[in-house]
């Protein structure tokens, strides 16, 4: 399967390091391709948020695919439900379960999924 790839988006933090703002770009999902989030865990501070917009008037699901970088991948894939016509936000707490050797995260979608996706994280840099 050739996945459609997206980047993690990093909000711009103000000089006080107290407020962050970002212009978010949403990517359309082609369910048959799935999504790969490039360098999903580069932040390494558990701030990755995967946001999935379900535009359909019916509930559906996505599957976070187990990775190949760490032993926790043995826990397997994780299928999660999406409510109809909602924006669903997921924070990955166990990166080692899902991280691939290249740092990416793969997500599969139910057949016929209609929606968009984006990923945001806090930068680990001192100034932004």
Short description:
The chain has one helix at 95-98; strands at 4-9, 12-13, 20-21, 27-28, 35-38, 49-54, 60-64, 78-82, 86-91, 105-109, 115-120. By secondary structure, the protein is mainly beta.
Task: Give an overview in words.
By secondary structure, this protein is mainly β. The protein has one domain. It contains one helix and eleven strands; from the N terminus they run βββββββββαββ. It has one helix at 95-98; strands at residues 4-9, 12-13, 20-21, 27-28, 35-38, 49-54, 60-64, 78-82, 86-91, 105-109, 115-120. The strands form two sheets. Strands 1, 4, 5, 6, 7, 8, 9, 10 and 11 form a nine-stranded mixed sheet that branches. Strands 2-3 form a two-stranded antiparallel ribbon. A hairpin with a 6-residue loop joins strand 2 (12-13) and strand 3.
């Amino acid at each position: 399967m050739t996945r459609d790839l997206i980047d993690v988006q990093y909000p711009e933090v103000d000089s006080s390091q107290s407020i962050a703002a970002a212009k978010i770009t949403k990517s359309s999902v082609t369910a048959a391709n799935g999504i790969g989030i490039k360098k999903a865990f580069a932040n390494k501070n558990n701030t990755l948020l995967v946001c999935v917009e379900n535009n359909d008037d019916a509930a559906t699901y996505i599957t976070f695919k187990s990775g190949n970088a760490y032993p926790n991948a043995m826990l397997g894939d994780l299928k999660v439900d999406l409510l109809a016509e909602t924006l669903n936000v997921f924070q990955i707490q166990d990166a080692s379960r899902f991280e691939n050797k290249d740092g990416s995260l793969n997500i599969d979608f139910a057949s016929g999924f209609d929606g968009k996706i984006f990923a945001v994280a806090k930068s680990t840099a001192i100034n932004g």
